[in-house]
Amino acid sequence: MVSVIIPVYNEPVGLQHTVDSFLHQNFPSEAYEIIIVDNGSKDNTFEEAKKYEQQYPHLIKALQEASIQGSYAARNKGLEVASGDLICFIDADMTVAPDYLSRVVKVFETDQPDYIGCEVNVYTDKNTLAAKYNQLHGFHIAHYLKVDHFVPTCCLSVSRSVFGIVGNFDHRLESGGDYEFGRRVFKAGLKQQFAGHIVVQHPARWKYSSLVKKYQRVARGLMQLHAFYPEDFEGREGKYFNKKKYLPKNPWKVYKSAKKRQVLLKLWEVLALCFYHIPITYHSFAELKKTPAIAKPQRVLEV
Description:
The protein is an alpha/beta fold.
């Protein structure tokens, strides 16, 4: 049995895309379930989730996590009712191929890992610098797993037994909960694996404001990790204090990265993207200054 858990907040259209892709799996319908967890949406997202539950009562469950605001709390809520031996997490705006579940299950049956991450393809139909920047700085799953021993929850599949060993996600974290959870799994000596032949589709953020909000959330998450787990994450926020983060990128490296990821760039876009990260990094640093004193690092910006 496989349980697919989808946390969602104010994303009715994205939820439809995600759920619809899971309704067309070449996998026995009696062998998996879809659990939608609304995290206190202020629009009609939960109503959309309930419509799916009513239409597919034997396949879909629609829940609410309204007491704790946060995606990790929503995922934990889904775990409370999940009946699967295998748990697949995905975000409500992503889509999968019809053979996604079959491929995931085959990896667990063949290699017997405890924790796997798959490839994430960031795509866009928007011709904006923000979208192209997001494509260039998307998900590097194999690197995350090799260096930091985690994969993002948007492409994470875990054996149910893992949660009995290391516990659930830390709901206190606004961001970085997947990072902290993955480190617990690694420390427990459980088998982690990258399944690069399995791909999930992730739409790019195509507005500059969306990118800023994302990186501000990541910055707050790093500071929370620093506060709650100083022995493991002290200094991780230091990248925002490194003056090199505020210098322009090498145009040739930007071009090569775009070519590798099949992102078409004009010359002016290459040059613009050399500077694009600077205000985003500064906004993230400014967000750190708003963090409660317990989470502030004792450092001075080196710039």
